[in-house]
From TrEMBL:
Keywords: Isomerase. This is Sugar phosphate isomerase/epimerase. Pfam families: AP_endonuc_2 (PF01261). Residues 59-280 form the Xylose isomerase-like TIM barrel domain.
Length: 281
């Protein structure tokens, strides 16, 4: 694990390898997947979505993006649009409103109603609903996640959780993210693995794919500048994107969403660069 971790953290090595290898295959001759149905987490375009949701979605569609994951905003989870309206705008632009980041709070029933109206497949809790970096708290959260998963399943929606780096801290020798994984039901809680934060925490996503096969149907595909501890354009950080994309089967991957929270210039230039990178590999 240590040697792989060191490899993952070596910025720049991937870009050289990519230039030398224009295409990749899985065992058995299958081509590397990952460029046909590119998704985006709308937090990447948070300012533009807040100012003009429909116009911004049009610009996103023009980039060739097909899958959309929404995020919270000061205008709500649908940026001032009605849930059904948000779904229809995406559909008219050739995109699918696949998932949405939400909070598990006292507005949960309304969140479920809205997601059902929007036709979303996934609802993803974006951060821990109760604070406390302890085994006891993570077990309590796991129980609440199982309950939310049951309630979502009745509506035909899949519930899940999105990690950061702090979930990989330990309490009394137990990795807290592992506590969460061990105490949630696989058929009720569908994990969205933020690959950038996993690597930034000093861990290896492939270790988690092996330990919990099929538990990660969603990814946030995010490269990380390890020195600054912030996201960056693909190929400029510490995530081995080519290797990650070869492990989709072990992960159980269904969809991935590109997310970039910080940019070299602006989110549009960064996303164009990321899409060009994915097409290159």
């Amino acid at each position: 694990m240590n040697s792989r971790r060191e490899f993952l953290l070596r910025s720049g090595a991937l870009a050289v390898g990519t230039a030398l290898m224009p295409s990749f295959t899985f065992a058995g001759g299958k081509k590397l997947k990952g460029t046909s149905n590119i998704g985006v987490q709308l937090y990447t375009f948070r300012k533009a979505m807040g100012e003009d949701a429909v116009g911004t979605l049009k610009k996103i569609a023009a980039l060739g993006i097909k899958e959309i994951e929404s995020a919270g905003s000061n205008k709500g989870y649908y940026y001032g649009l009605k849930p059904k309206e948000m779904q229809q705008v995406c559909k008219d632009l050739g995109m699918t409103l696949r998932s949405g980041h939400i909070a598990l709070n006292d507005k949960w029933e309304q969140t479920l109603d809205d997601a059902a109206e929007a036709g979303q497949e996934y609802l993803i809790c974006s951060s821990m609903p109760s604070k406390g970096q302890s085994v006891d708290n993570y077990k309590k959260v796991a129980a609440s996640f199982n309950k939310a998963g049951e309630e979502s399943k009745k509506r035909g929606i899949k519930f899940g959780y999105h990690n950061h780096d702090y979930e990989f801290e330990s309490d009394n020798g137990h990795v807290l993210y592992d506590v969460l994984m061990d105490n949630t039901q696989a058929d009720l809680v569908h994990m969205e693995l933020d690959l950038g934060w996993v690597v930034a925490s000093g861990n290896d996503p492939m270790v988690y794919f092996a330990k919990y096969p099929g538990r990660f149907p969603l990814w946030h595909l995010k490269d990380m500048d390890m020195a600054k501890h912030e996201s960056t354009e693909f190929g400029k950080g510490g995530l081995d994107i080519v290797d990650i994309l070869k492990h989709q089967k072990e992960s159980g991957l269904k969809y991935y969403f590109v997310e970039q929270e910080e940019y070299t210039n602006d989110p549009w230039d960064s996303m164009k660069e990321n899409i060009a990178y994915l097409k290159r590999i």
